[in-house]
């Protein structure tokens, strides 16, 4: 999960992205983004409609998986962007993690948010502490 400072707060900021952002579409979702030079960090929102899946559990699982995938690439973001990822398919809930990572990375590269051939961060999760040997 990404840190609170990397999330949107309020509907006004999302409205700006929807009005002024560029869109990249795929079969599973769309990535809408706009550069935001007034910020130091990127901001990300994941939108999963009830039309995608009736169960809130599945919608939240999709949201958490995309947040975690984006967190793995936050070290490589070239400048602060406002990003909204809208999900169209519930297949993202059961998709293999490596395939999901690849699809999200491809959209971030296509939007020039990260550079091509960017390695995945090998850092540990912010909540889980590594095991001591």
Q: Can you offer a commentary on this structure?
A:
- The protein is α+β, with helices and mostly antiparallel strands.
- It has one domain: Ribosomal Protein S5, domain 2 (2-Layer Sandwich), CATH 3.30.230.10.
- Helices cover 31% and strands 18% of the residues.
- The chain is built from three helices and four strands.
- It has helices spanning 11-20, 56-72, 97-110, and strands at residues 22-25, 29-35, 43-48, 81-87.
- Strands 1-2-4-3 form a four-stranded mixed β-sheet, sandwiched between helices.
- Helix 2 packs across helix 3 (97-110).
- The mean pLDDT is 86.
Task: Count structural domains.
Answer: 1
* Low-confidence residue ranges: none
Structural class: alpha+beta
Number of strands: 4
List the helices and strands and how they pair.
Blueprint: H1 11-20, E1 22-25, E2 29-35, E3 43-48, H2 56-72, E4 81-87, H3 97-110
Parallel strand pairs: 3-4
Antiparallel strand pairs: 1-2, 2-4
